[in-house]
Structures are given as C-alpha cells and as structure tokens.
Amino acid sequence: MDAQTVREHASDLPTEPGVYQFLEGDTVLYVGKAVDLRSRVRSYADPRSARIAGMVERADDLDVAVTDTETQALLLEANLIKRHQPRYNVRLKDDKSYPLVQLTDHEFPRIEVTRDPNEGATVFGPYTSMGTVETVVKALRETFGVRGCSDHKFAGRARPCLDYEMGLCTAPCTDEIAREDYIADVDSVTQFFAGETGVLADPLSREMEQAAASQSFERAANLRDRLEVVESFHGGGGEAVSGREEYERSVDVLGVALRGDDATVARLHAEGGQLVERDRHAVAAPAGTDQEASDAVPAVLAAFLVQYYAERSLPDAILLPEHHGDEEVAAWLDAADVAVRVPGAGREAKLVELALKNARRNVGRRDESAALADELCLSRVSRIEGFDVSHAQGRAVVGSNVCFVDGSAEKSDYRRKKLDETNDDYANMAALVRWRAERALEGRDDRPDPDLLLIDGGEGQLSAAMDALEATGWDVPAVALAKAEELVITPDRTHDWDDDAPQLHLLQRVRDEAHRFAVQYHQSVRDDVSTVLDDVSGIGPATRRRLLGRFGSVENVRAASVDELLAVEGVGEKTAERLRRRL
Predict the structure, then answer these.
(1) Which of 287, 286, 289, 281 is nearest to 257 (CA)?
(2) What pLDDT score does 531 carry?
(3) Distance of CA 39 to the CA centre of its chain
(4) What's the rounded Cα separation, in Å, for the pair 359 and 280?
(5) Quick one: 111 exposed, middle or buried, by C-beta within 10 A (0-12, 13-18, 19+)?
(6) Which residues contact 279 (CB under 8 A, 6 or more apart)?
(7) Core-most of 28, 34, 446, 455, by most CB within 10 Å?
C-alpha cells in the first residue's frame, strides 16, 4: 500500500474514535486505536519509523471499526491484539481479553457475556469490569426475559426450563411468547447498550419503589445497588471503572527489559506500603522493532498497561521507569483516578529499580510454548488441555481435564468427569475426549478451544483420543506423552527430545497435573463408595473389601440377594438385612 492509497482510505473515514487494522489478505498485520480515525490513518502516508513503513508497504487493505468513545477504542484494540496476535504490535503473551456482550444471530437471539463473539452476532463493548457487565446482563434478563441458554438447550424443548420459573426468560423455546414480542424485548436490550440507560433504569426504579412501599426492604436495597450499577454503566463510555480511595493503598511498580525479539515486564505489587507480590510477564515485541529506539520501552509499557489490566482491578498508583507516551492510555488511567508517576529518587525510585532487576533476570530465554509449537509444526501452542483416566480395575472410573495457558496452570478451567465403569483404558480415554469434544461443538463448554490436547499415555490412548475427535469432528491437534520413556507421540511420528528440552518440560508439567487431578478425583469417588458401606452397622474395612472384591461395586452389592450376601465371609443375617435396607 503506497502513500496515495493510504490517503484515499483516510479520506473516506469519519473523524470519530475507533480502531483500524492493516491487513495483508486475511492476516492482520497491525491494530491501532485513534481519537480521530481520519487523521490517524492519514499519518501512515508518512510513516514515523522504518518498521511502520515496512508494515504499510506489506498491507493491501484497511479495516475500521467506529466506537462511541475513546475508552472503547482503547479496550477494543487490546481485544483485537489478543485475538489476532498481529506481528507489528506489542503483544502480552499471557493475558485475557476484555469482556463483550453479544446478541447472537438466531431467530430468537441469546444474550451472553463473552470474549470471543460468534460470527454474525451483534456485539457491544468491550468493558473493563466483568462483575458490572454480569450484573447489568442479569438485570436485562429479569426485565426483558431474553434467553441466556445455548442453542443446544434451546432446540427441541418440550417445556420451559428453570430460567422461566425464575423470571429470567420468557421461554420462546416453547412458544410462551410470540416471536414479534420477543424481538421487541431484544430491541429494548439493544437500545440500552446503545446508550438509552432509562430503558432499564426506569423499570428498576419503579420496582425498587414498589418493594420499599411493601416493606420488602432487603429487596429494595438490592434493587437500589443494581440501579446504581446500571445508571453508571454508560458514564465512562460503556465501561465501569471503580474509583480510587483518597489515599493510595495499592501500588504497582513496573520494570521493562528488552533483548532481541523478547521483552519482559516485571510487576511488583505493594499493599499499605508492604511489598506483597511480584510476577514477570513475557511480551512479544513487534516485528522489525529497533530495541535501541527511544520509543521501544514506552511502546511496551503502553501495550502492557491496557492488555494486563483486563479483568484485574486497577491499583491506586502505578510507578514506571519512564513515561509510556500514549495519550489515550493516560486519559483512561486518569478517568479511573489512577496516579501514574516516574520517580526520580527516594523509596519509589528504588522500587522501580528492583522491578527492572526482576525484568532483566533471564530475559530472552526461549519461550516453552513457542519451542513446542516449532517442534510440532503448529502456528501456536498457547492453550494446552491435558487428559488422564484413573480407576481401580474398572471401578470408580473418572477422567481429568486440566488446562495450562502459556505454561501456567489455569485451575479455573479444570474439569472432571465420572465415566462408565469399565476396565478398558482406551475406551475410557475415548469417552473422556468425546465428552469434551461434544460439549465444545454444542456450545455447552464456556472455555475457548485449546491449541493442543495432551493425552497421558502411549499410542493406544492417543489412537482412542483421535478416534473420538474424528467421530465428533472436533478439529484440535493431539499428542500423547508416555511415562516410561518420556516419548512424545503424534499421529505421524514419535519425538525423543533431550531431557532438558523446554518443550518437553512443559508437556511433563501438563501430563503430571492431569494425572494428579485424576487420581485425586478417583480417590474421592472411591472413598464415597466406601463410606456408603461403612455407614452400615457391622461392616468394617475387611468386610467392605470382601464385598467389593466379590461384587465389584456398590450397585452390584445392592442388587445381590440375601443368600449371596451371606456367602461373603463376615456377613451374618442381621448384617445382610441391614445392607438391604441401607442400600
């Protein structure tokens, strides 16, 4: 794209806030934000650096999204960078995107809080406070009855679900409301997100007054709190950023170190003057970056501030080694009452120096996830889900599904599953992977699809998992890691990596955690079975073991006749009768 083409694109753009994307075919090269889209895009006709000039030259198209406010442009930029990982942007490798609200493209649209909207959906946001968004969405559902269930649950229902009974949905699935009336309610929801706060605030206010008049003071107080959230929802441009206390109680200190194509940001966190937390974050510098350039560190800082504080509370103050230089970021932090300082001396300067030392430690070390992606010929391996099965000779069969994001355990995304009791490891693994795949494809799993599945086992377990993936049509790559020789098995070949290979260490951590989680769940299920028998008077540990050894499970003990129970050593007539009554 030459300078004249850039100017032609710019001349057609509005002078409003928004986000722009430079594209090469379907690939996003760069995402930027602007207070004035026309002016900002026109500036690329005369690029300010060789890196930006190279990006513009490669681009063959430009895409633009207009936002209502500068803050929305700031947050939308962060979401798009996280999703597309454009090579000419600074990218925080281990962070979440900001929440959005979508109304799906369906005959009866569904309202949902999401970070990955569906194609064709009407999307609002992004927003900085997940809690605030969820409060508003619940209030909208209680007022207008817009459904929140998945399309899978919506289809084929014979009677309304619990949401209808609770007043959260008008049950269009069973024709409890006409489609025209339902769409009118959806339009009201759209009006609210477009800025008409009264659409929701007015009915909430009336309901609050009615509750107070009937002396339902607790409900009136809850409605008052909800009304405050709703009325402030559009106050900051669609996001709800909490104000700071009068005095600084929490302070974040940032330090940045650059080396080659790698950057590291170290964060120190102080509460009440005491250093209570420290962490480090890998950052991908944009392609063609001159690490010696004067704007390299400010660019990393500006990108980190927006991308890191998605889904996190802002501190009262942030200390930086130098100014980040981004006016939109500065305006956002100022609106949130966050003090930003670059200390020159004293205790705060020493804290910044400590953060810099933490950032420099091991900066440039090759990323484990990147190494794994290279070895497996995948574009990226950021999110890995590990699977394992545990049982005792076919009894108390369970499966684990753990999740690691950029090398760290994401325990909120762990899942576990009771499986049919069978002493067949391959069938159990196939059932576990099929369960995960079907939930993903039917929209019943709120987690993002992983970049890689890791199966605890060898060729047999991997083959069973691949059969499940093929049967369901879930297109996710899978590998297995066998314990005995630590070989990484793929559908095409077997890798025998060095013991100190970073990608092997990553897979070992995922495999070991999946095994630990499965064994822990198996033990709890097994202990639950034992407890049922232990509750029967006259059944001790030895007799319990004989019963389970003879019949295999509590279900089989329950189905046994008195004569069969009496045949077990240690079980007399009274004990047998108690067993029959208890089970």
Answers:
(1) 281
(2) 57
(3) 35
(4) 7
(5) buried
(6) 266, 267
(7) 455
Alpha carbons within 13 A on the beta-carbon side of 312: 16
The stretches in the chain having pLDDT less than 50 are 236-247, 364-366
- Give buried/exposed letters for 451-465 (b at 16+ CB in 10 A, else e): bbbbbbbbeebbbbb
Q: CA angle, corner 43, sides to 38 and 44, nearest 5?
A: 110
Which candidate, 233, 286, 277, places its Cα nearest to that of 253? 277
Which whole-number Å values give the CA distances from 444 to 213, 302, 556, 578, in the listed order? 42, 36, 33, 42
Q: What is 331-359 written as a DSSP string? A: HHHHHTT-EEE---SSHHHHHHHHHHHHH
* Residue 63: CB atoms within 10 Å: 12
**Residue 59, burial from CB neighbour count under 10 angstroms (0-12, 13-18, 19+):** buried
- Look at residue 62 in the predicted model and tell me its pLDDT: 92
Q: CB within 8 A of 559, min separation 6: which ones?
A: none
Does pTM top 0.70 for this prediction?
no
| Per-residue pLDDT reduced to its tens digit, 448-490 | 899 999 999 999 999 999 999 999 999 999 999 988 788 999 9
Q: Which tokens sit at 371?
A: 């190494």
pLDDT in tens, 50-87: 778 888 989 999 998 888 777 778 878 887 887 788 88
Average pLDDT value for the chain: 83
Give the integer Cα–Cα distance in Å for 240 and 225.
Answer: 14
Instruction: Give the pair of three-digit tokens for residue 321.
Output: 């080694």
Which distant-in-sequence residues (6+ apart) come within 8 Å of 531 by Cβ? Answer: none
d(CA 384, CA 459): 19
pLDDT of residue 294: 62
Question: Which runs of E-coded beta strand occur in 424-536?
Answer: 452-456, 478-481, 488-489, 494-495
